[in-house]
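BACKBONE STRUCTURE TOKENS:
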Amino acid sequence: MREARGKKRPRQLLWRWRNNPLRRHDDVVEAWIMLVVWAAIALGGALIGTVTAHATDESLAQLRHDRHTVGAVLVESTARAVSTGDGTRNGHVRAKVRWTASDGSLRSGRAPVDSGQKAGSNVLIWVNSKGQVTTEPPTASAAATEAAMSGAGAALALGGLVFAAGRVAQWRLDQRRYEQWDREWDQVGPQWGRRTT
């Protein structure tokens, strides 16, 4: 009695593929579906995550390349501006500035500047390759973090979609099994009600 309790059942690895009288065709199909699902999650997730991270990093590197600072003169005072609310970011407010573009033309526009400055103050603003006012590009470390997060998000999204598709396929196989069991029970069930003498 003790030996029977102490003994563990041997594990049947890959039982769905083994030749066995209880194995159904749907069991083999389900096993293949699960293998494909997990392979797609592992390999596809790694691939899509890497591609997305690389594309995001390249895009942010292009932003850093295209944007640069130029000296500008503050046209309006920001001394009374409050650095919270609409149009503010990290203690900055949007104010009207004037600067000279690379082609020598005088330009003006609204740009984020530090609050608490008087009109006529010299400030640095960020412009893109077309000379339009823009925001500061992310630093290399911030870009690396954003690229990693984008890659991880893409990998998780793909993994979720593939897993959901696998679960739908399993659910459909289960429905087929239930229908098959119903048909078989319709054939066998009436025989159980007969009395044998």
Observations:
- Residues 83-88 have pLDDT under 50 and may be disordered.
- Residues 25-66 form one domain.
